[in-house]
Amino acid sequence: MAPLWIVFASGMVLMLLSSCFLNLIHNDATLRFFGNQPTYACADGFLSSFKEFPFCNTSLSIGDRVDDLVGRLTLSEKIQLLVSEAAGVPRLGVPPYQWWQEALHGVAVSPGVHFMAPIPAATSFPQVILTAASFNATLWNEIGKAVSTEGRAMYNSGLSGLTFWSPNINIFRDPRWGRGQETPGEDPLLASRYAASYVKGLQDGDYEGINGTEPSVISTPAFSQVVTNRTGPKRLKVSACCKHFTAYDMENSGGTDAFHFNAQVTVQDLEDTYNAPFKACVQDGGVSCIMCSYNRLNGVPTCADYNLLTNTIQQKWRLDGYIVSDCDAVAIINDYFHYAPTPEDAVSEVLKAGLDLNCGTYIARHAQKAIDEGKLSEVNIDEALSKLVSVQMRLGLFDGNPQNHRYGMLGPEAVCTNEHQHLALEAARQSIVLLKNEGGLLPLSKKNTRTLALIGPHGNASDAMLGNYAGIPCKFITPTQGLQAYGTVFSEPGCMNVSCEELQFLDEALEVVKKVDAIVLIVGLDENQEKEGHDRKSLLLPGQQETLVITVAAAAAAENHPVIVVVMCGGPVDISFAKDNVNISSILWIGYPGEAGGEALAQILYGDYNPGGRVPVTWYPQEFVKVSMLDMHMRPNETSEYPGRTYRFYTGKTVYDFGYGKSFTTFLSSFVLAPGTIYGKKLVRQLASFQTSPFSLGFVRDSTSKLDVEDASCDHYNIDVTLNVTNTGNREGSHVLLLYAKPPTSVKGSPKKYLVAFERIHLQAKESKNVVFWIVPCRDLALVQGEGKKVLYSGVYTLTVDKAEHSLVLILDS
Ligand SMILES: *[C@@H]1O[C@H](CO)[C@@H](O)[C@H](O)[C@H]1NC(C)=O
Ligand SMILES: *[C@@H]1O[C@H](CO)[C@@H](O)[C@H](O)[C@H]1NC(C)=O
Ligand SMILES: *[C@@H]1O[C@H](CO)[C@@H](O)[C@H](O)[C@H]1NC(C)=O
Ligand SMILES: *[C@@H]1O[C@H](CO)[C@@H](O)[C@H](O)[C@H]1NC(C)=O
Ligand SMILES: *[C@@H]1O[C@H](CO)[C@@H](O)[C@H](O)[C@H]1NC(C)=O
Ligand SMILES: *[C@@H]1O[C@H](CO)[C@@H](O)[C@H](O)[C@H]1NC(C)=O
Ligand SMILES: *[C@@H]1O[C@H](CO)[C@@H](O)[C@H](O)[C@H]1NC(C)=O
Ligand SMILES: *[C@@H]1O[C@H](CO)[C@@H](O)[C@H](O)[C@H]1NC(C)=O
Ligand SMILES: *[C@@H]1O[C@H](CO)[C@@H](O)[C@H](O)[C@H]1NC(C)=O
Fold first, then answer.
1. Per-residue pLDDT tens for 648-675?
2. Element (H, E) at 725
3. What is the residue range of 738's domain?
4. Hey, is 765 helix, strand or coil?
């Protein structure tokens, strides 16, 4: 295929993708020709001897092929393979490989991805924070499949590699975080399911939770029951990477940035919050890569932490894949943290800790000297390299020309297909959240709303609809274009841009208000407010946006015209002023809705789609900014008046709660069948069927009766919780069932409540369904103790769904 690869000029990479913040990577803005070298390893048509190496022989096991290749390399060749721009090995016909590709919500602009003929664009799905709001794991899996199809097609056309460093699954713990938009939100279960479903979609797995066709009774495993497969798929469609491990969660605040940040995290918070999605990504998603972060964790740079990389990811979770550093995270260990005395020490520390690949060049530059000085041994290099090559083999990078691969038929026609573009629309409309709808103003009547004023700086939003880590979209449907499909639209910005320092165009806006049937104000944020490298300082709308909304809404009220406020942003904004304003009937949150955002918005405003999204983060009031961004505690502290973070712990006021979202119809849920009491004996008896003597199983039960679930492994015992859900309105719609548990009040430091399971279901008008959740008490109800141990406590657990409650009593000592 295309015999040339283009390396971005470093300025371009820096501009479009600031992950390489320090930009120590040497990019030469040149076209590289390989002369008479093949573009693909083990390719046809070159020296036939290339193909005849055992590492090219697909009949052999991957382990044998890896050993063969690694065994043929010299030390200096090996060292040059441990960096993101891996060198080629011309004498073996192995071309260079760029490991760095991104695919957060579509194949994205990144060093290894080249948008050019014959594939100048790819489907751009909504930014992840919005897609998370669908609470639909099938959707996340479908998006992963579409993205990997497009990634493979670009690879087959010589325009991309196959290792994508996505998704970002850090817990969104502070509303100001500039990269919160990239994540699936603040809840560990939500983030875990998102990670596993999306990763499986990318790497080649179906989401096994639900079948697609909905039976009247849904058996919903609470997660990881059916999905668990502790090794990843043998063959990979593309390789995904869960990042940034761990406790990253901030860009810059109070004079500290992520490259200097030492996250002080308790073992309890690490276990039940920060690490939880990563564990699920490895164990349930079978991911083939984890990226360690820039920050230090309790003093130790994460990329140099043996306990994190080797003990936790590799040995405990059993990652089948490689660990990569965030870009230049190895260099900063020495340059910024001064954690290692010399570059050679930094390189030795990370490789011995379990790192396999350096995004950057540091290892390539310093490993040889580290070995010469006796700080590192070749065995360390071989171990890292074997893991890298193994992933490349699973991808088929040593199977010769891409056409030989089972995905070899994917070409340009597989990209930006109608199906994929429809999925981008579907993702946006499933996810958009209706926050307010006084008097059922929405949906707008198509007959009576022929003219519309669209006021605010986002009326013609295009790039802003994508959010960061985006690609080049197939096309855009802006808000104005989307609404034009339903009537005449008068679009007025009100101010110059989203920063909205002055209301230069207020008069024009007030003028159109008089001549239309309804007013839509479209406001919010863009990358000038929140992005990588930039956290917000305020939770309010920027500049004069609030004044614009209040003034226009008052003018509209004077004309008796309805007003809808649409907020485009990733992180939450304090819009209490609009929530409480009687002149504003409705509010929608549309995240950064992707290439089809305007169409999705219009379909919802005019009732062609009934919204069912729920906010995946707490919407905090402005006063939250007094909390230090550097404080990583999840739990509140009364003495220091620290309010805690996320719905699980936060004790202050909210603007909107996690999980909030309305519909054009109404739903009623009730518990129909669920056990009232579970006795410890039952859990024990369950174990007894596997082993003869239940009391000799290391089953830890102390006098106050709690069960160490990690030792007891009682996750074979599950209970059914059956709900009846009825659509009590006159319109079909989707309803997100969020099953929470409130733990016994006697348990100190426990969350106020926590999500145990969730599922999105669809109901026709007046239809009702029974939904069965399988709950595994030892897994789903257990809590993490202060010292990091997961235990199941005796006591009363209150299960809630919507307004329904059910008490479940656990009596473990009888
Ligand atoms: C590939 O390996 C198989 C199994 O060892 C062997 O039978 C076959 O001859 C090898 N093929 C080549 C081309 O060397
Ligand atoms: C999927 O459907 C098949 C056939 O109807 C059924 O046997 C299987 O249990 C279903 N799987 C899940 C996870 O619901
Ligand atoms: C688990 O992985 C094995 C080995 O790759 C595979 O054969 C099996 O189908 C997988 N099972 C599931 C449920 O994905
Ligand atoms: C959108 O573009 C149209 C046509 O260029 C222009 O008239 C209108 O003022 C713009 N609206 C906004 C909100 O910038
Ligand atoms: C926004 O508009 C103002 C003028 O009101 C201008 O000074 C500023 O540079 C613009 N900001 C951006 C990011 O374009
Ligand atoms: C609502 O609109 C009316 C009529 O224009 C105005 O008098 C009032 O101040 C507005 N209320 C708010 C909260 O802005
Ligand atoms: C709570 O805050 C106080 C005062 O700052 C501090 O002394 C104490 O250690 C904190 N407690 C915890 C559990 O962090
Ligand atoms: C979940 O997403 C899938 C894929 O887009 C869709 O087919 C299904 O209808 C969605 N489920 C609900 C309940 O909206
Ligand atoms: C659910 O409850 C409603 C209202 O009580 C009832 O009419 C309906 O039959 C129940 N549905 C199922 C599937 O049991």
1. 999 999 999 999 999 999 999 999 999 9
2. strand 719-727
3. 667-811
4. coil
- Closest by CA position to 126, among listed 483, 423, 416, 424: 424
CA dihedral 335, 340, 344, 345 (to 10 degrees): -160
- Which residues approach ligand 2 with their CB closer than 6 A? 208, 210-211, 219, 226
Q: Could you tell me the distance, in angstroms and rounded to a whole number, from the CA of residue 218 to the centre of ligand 9?
A: 15
Residue 814's pLDDT is 61
- How many structural domains compose the chain? 3
Q: Could you tell me if the CB of 430 is within 6 A of ligand 8?
A: yes
Verify whether ligand 8 is closer than 6 Å to residue 138 (CB atom). yes
How far is residue 544 from each of residues 494, 500, 524, 562, measured CA to CA in Å? 9, 5, 11, 22
Pocket test for ligand 1, best of 51, 59, 64 (most atoms within 8 A of CB): 59
Whether 326 is catalytic is: yes
502 lines ligand 5 (CB under 6 A): yes
The reply to whether 610 and 677 lie within a common domain is: no
Tell me which residue of 595, 669, 677, 621 sits closest to 426, measured CA to CA: 595
Site to substitute for ligand 8 among 138, 211, 614, 732, most atoms within 8 A of C-beta: 138
The tokens 């590799």 sit on which residue? 314
Q: State if residue 230 touches ligand 3 by the CB under 6 angstroms criterion.
A: no
* Maximum separation of any 2 CA atoms in the chain, in Å: 82
Nearest to 151 by CA among 184, 197, 104: 104
Ligand 7: which residue has its CA nearest to atom 11?
637
Burial group, residue 33, by CB count within 10 angstroms (0-12, 13-18, 19+): exposed
Residue 18, pLDDT > 60, answer no
Same domain, 339 and 476: no
How many A from CA of 303 to the centre of ligand 3? 30
Amino acid at 236: L
HSE-CB for 187 with a 13 A CA cutoff = 27
Q: Is the CB of 229 under 6 A from ligand 3?
A: yes
Q: Are residues 617 and 711 in the same domain?
A: no
Q: Please pick, among 326, 328, 399, 574, the residue that the annotation labels catalytic.
A: 326
One-character DSSP codes across 8-76:
PPHHHHHHH-TTSSS--S-----EEE-TTS-SSTT-TTS-HHHHTSGGG-TTS-HHHHHHHHHHH--HH
Q: Is the CB of 759 under 6 A from ligand 8?
A: no
pLDDT tens-digit series, residues 280-310: 999 889 999 999 999 999 999 999 999 999 9
- CA distances from residue 207 to 143, 149, 187, 406, 628 in whole angstroms, order as listed: 11, 16, 20, 21, 39
CA 794 – CA 814 distance, rounded (Å)? 10
Question: In terms of DSSP H, where are the helices of 436-529?
Answer: 479-484, 506-514
CA–CA separation, 240 vs 753, rounded Å? Answer: 32
770 CB near ligand 9 (under 6 Å): yes
DSSP letter string, 623-660: GGGGS-TT----S-BTTTTB--SHHHH--S--SB-TT-
Give residues with Cβ within 8 angstroms of 710, minimum separation 6. Answer: 789, 790
Q: What atom in ligand 8 is closest to the CA of residue 423?
A: 5
Backbone torsions φ then ψ of 518, nearest 5 degrees: -155, 160
Which ligand is closest in space to the CA of residue 732? Answer: 8
Pocket flag, ligand 3, residue 412 (CB < 6 Å): no
472 and 532 co-located in one domain: yes
List the CATH number of the domain containing 689.
2.60.40.10
pLDDT confidence bin for 718, thresholds 50/70/90: confident
Which token pair is 808? 């479940």
Same structural domain, 679 and 589: no
Name the residue at shortest CA distance from atom 14 of ligand 1.
52
792, 711 contact by CB (below 8 A): no
**Closest approach atom of ligand 8 to CA 212:** 7
Query: What is the per-residue pLDDT for 748?
Result: 85
Whether residue 662 lies inside any domain: the answer is: no
Q: Which two tokens stand for residue 493?
A: 């910005």
